[in-house]
What we know:
binds magnesium ion, Rossmann fold, 2 domains, alpha/beta, Four Helix Bundle (Hemerythrin (Met), subunit A), 328 residues, binds guanosine-5'-triphosphate
Amino acid sequence: xxxxxxxxxxxxxxxxxxxxxxxxxxxxxxxxxxxxxxxxxxxxxxxxxxxxxxxxxxxxxxxxxxxxxxxxxxxxxxxxxxxxxxxxxxxxxxxxxxxxxxxxxxxxxxxxxxxxxxxxxxxxxxxxxxxxxxxxxxxxxxxxxxxxxxxxxxxxxxxxxxxxxxxxxxxxxxxxxxxxxxxxxxxxxxxxxxxxxxxxxxxxxxxxxxxxxxxxxxxxxxxxxxxxxxxxxxxxxxxxxxxxxxxxxxxxxxxxxxxxxxxxxxxxxxxxxxxxxxxxxxxxxxxxxxxxxxxxxxxxxxxxxxxxxxxxxxxxxxxxxxxxxxxx
Length: 328
Ligand SMILES: Nc1nc2c(ncn2[C@@H]2O[C@H](COP(=O)(O)OP(=O)(O)OP(=O)(O)O)[C@@H](O)[C@H]2O)c(=O)[nH]1
Ligand SMILES: [Mg+2]
């Protein structure tokens, strides 16, 4: 799922101005086409109704398109839902999306009301007045949803930068303290080129890359931002890492750094906490063994780790009850 195609949301004034501009353009065409045989009153009615209808259609279509192009919150998977919750007040967003529909119905009601008034009147001056009243009321309905448009635009900006995480592919999260070598491991396993640097919190969002077999992506790896051992006081970046471990990954690779980057005790404690909080199976990978001795059990190089991950994936496919029986 990619969220970067949701169209940008402008403010209410922008759409109102555009609606009236379109209305004027259509009215100009109608003026040229309307039969000279018609009375002045009839002509005026036709033109003012064209204006109202054009503005109404434009606003309703715009609001409908916004609703349709925005991902349905109820259909977001748990991972994206939790991630969105980190940045956006979900109840407020739901209310704002609902407000689009409200405004659309209002514009439609005002149109019907004022079109009827225009049709019924025999007073030439009133024709223009009713059209102007419609414009005023439609603008006012749009103005009332201005704050909601801002909420939706804010959510769109957040969603646009969400990682592309595919569903239905065996997914592994790489976790550990900052600066321990998580991104370096991702690069070794997949050939990807994430940002790697000798300071903490280099990775600020989730990086994904894939292990391939015969050209097919078979394992999705998520390189997470480094997390400190403070589950109660996680910042947004750490929370992203944790959400990926808990809701997107089926397996976690925990990177231990045997150099003095962070005390071993703290790294062990974080591992225990991740185990407890996610309930996921965890494989240990010890980084930097070329420059430091390590007494940690389970030293494997990245090639051995890759083999193990592929084996896990096969095991998972064999035992996954949701998969259909292979055809004989
Ligand atoms: N010698 C050696 N250096 C390594 C190894 N793995 C990582 N490094 C170095 O450790 C530093 C941190 O590596 P990263 O891969 O950016 O670490 P990270 O865990 O992704 O860091 P954050 O994104 O900040 O959490 C870089 O300078 C790497 O070159 C390794 O196996 N051996
Ligand atoms: Mg990193």
